[in-house]
Amino acid sequence: MAKRTVTEENEPSRKKLKTKTGKDEKHAEDKPSTHEKKKKKDKSSKTSPGSDTPGATTSRSEIDEFMKTNTIEISDPLNKENPPAPILSFDQLPERDHILYEPLKKFPAPTSVQSATWPLLFAGRDVIGIAETGSGKTLAFGLPCLKNMVDSKKKLKPSHPRAVILTPTRELAMQIYEQLEGYAPRVSVRVTCIFGGVRKDEQREALKDTAVVVATPGRLKDLESEGAINLSKVKYLVLDEADRMLDKGFEQDIKDIVAPMPVSRRQTAMFTATWPVAVRNLANSFTQDPVMVTVGGKPSEDPRANTRIKQVVEVLDGRDKENRLTQILAKLTKESPKGKILVFCLYKKEAMRIERLIQSRGYAVAGIHGDLSQSDRFKSLASFKSGAVTILVATDVAARGLDIPAVKTVVNVTFPLTIEDYVHRIGRTGRAGADGHAITLFTENDKAHSGALINVLKAAKQDVPDSLFKFGTTVKKKQHDAYGAFFKDVDVTKSATKITFDD
Ligand SMILES: Nc1ncnc2c1ncn2[C@@H]1O[C@H](COP(=O)(O)OP(=O)(O)OP(=O)(O)O)[C@@H](O)[C@H]1O
């Protein structure tokens, strides 16, 4: 794969991509033909309970009970009265004995989001899946992707992958790749992971013979524009962390990447834990008759945190933060010397300062932020994952999606830019059914977030400190177009020129 990652290289000269795809296909993206619509409609009726599909062997009352207990809502524009039923066990997967599913045996049952989205995705429907952090979304979109590749009768054309999974950070791309690699080789499906910050040579080579590409948008666009990859045969597209991918920072890149893959000829899956109003309309333009699946209640203005995470908010004077942080770390490490602690900062410079502070107190600590080289970012992550260091200081590049085993506590030294980022940050703990703990230091500077934070705390049945109420309960409308985690991952000591994202 292009985990075949290497060191820096010079920028090669870029060729304009010459493909057969052109205007006609772009038009097709806007307006699917009646025939194509009908095809998808047929697929939708196939998934109704009682038909020959996964889920069909469970009684309606069992399904209703399951959906109620797990607060699953499924809204299908093509089948409003009788939306497709979830599957309740791995036995109900299509071709249940398929070799692809064997590694699932290590899990007791599908998670709620897998139960609800698998019947839809296996049947070829577009899906927008919204479920709490750490709930198994990667396999929710990953397994149907691999099955789709297995079922594909056509021979793979060199450099023409059939599936693309887009994700905002390099670490996340690698993590998705690693999860898929637990399944793909069993069915001889080749998966390649590409992202920026490393050499392109091996990525170009790997792209020649791959069915599935897991990528960050910038590098994929780059390789596409130089002709190393042609996306016109893509029939399965995933936007992981979909709200992040559709906000202003990535929107244009995503549009450019999907342009050669008409919406009518591809299946699109979008997954996330947070679904801000700002991106919802845009999401519709990337999908065709998507089924909306929500686990844990309909998405509201305020995102929902995983309820197994105990959230503690401490309101304090900004000048006391560092002292308080060292007290917290002393207490946490005394209680649980091996317990992993993830410390979030907003700025790169701040993260470096806090890392130094923690180091000066004698702790083994690593850092991860946008100023580090890619290999240092991977090294930090690996040593935190393995437990070689128990404290990791990070900016929001690590807020989303990263599945680090047994993070005991998340500490927010500085509040993130958006309430969605808060939910993603604390979601690094309490994963896969475990309990978690998050401590947030909140100062007057963060008061614009008090209303939204109070709502998140209340919705997750957490205590709201009186001191937080004094900042007000109004929820401010998003003011900045570039909502999202990375906006402030810039060097604030330089005059700001360009906001950079992972590529
Ligand atoms: N059916 C299952 N039962 C138990 N654990 C599972 C199951 N499916 C996946 N997992 C595990 O749950 C953990 C979290 O999964 P994953 O990383 O896909 O979460 P996520 O929903 O994408 O989280 P986030 O919103 O933070 O990106 C992983 O370690 C994964 O192996």
From TrEMBL:
Matching InterPro entries: DEAD/DEAH_box_helicase_dom, DEAD/DEAH_RhlB, Helicase_ATP-bd, Helicase_C-like, P-loop_NTPase, RNA-helicase_DEAD-box_CS
EC number(s) on file: 3.6.4.13
Pfam families for the chain: DEAD (PF00270), Helicase_C (PF00271)
GO molecular function, one term: RNA helicase activity
Positions of region (Disordered): 1-84
PROSITE patterns, alphabetized: DEAD_ATP_HELICASE, HELICASE_ATP_BIND_1, HELICASE_CTER
Keyword set, alphabetical order: ATP-binding, Helicase, Hydrolase, Nucleotide-binding, Nucleus, Ribosome biogenesis, rRNA processing
Places the protein is found: Nucleus, Nucleolus
CDD domains, per database record: DEADc, SF2_C_DEAD
Assigned protein family: Belongs to the DEAD box helicase family. DDX5/DBP2 subfamily.
Protein's job: ATP-dependent RNA helicase required for 60S ribosomal subunit synthesis. Involved in efficient pre-rRNA processing, predominantly at site A3, which is necessary for the normal formation of 25S and 5.8S rRNAs.
Protein name: RNA helicase
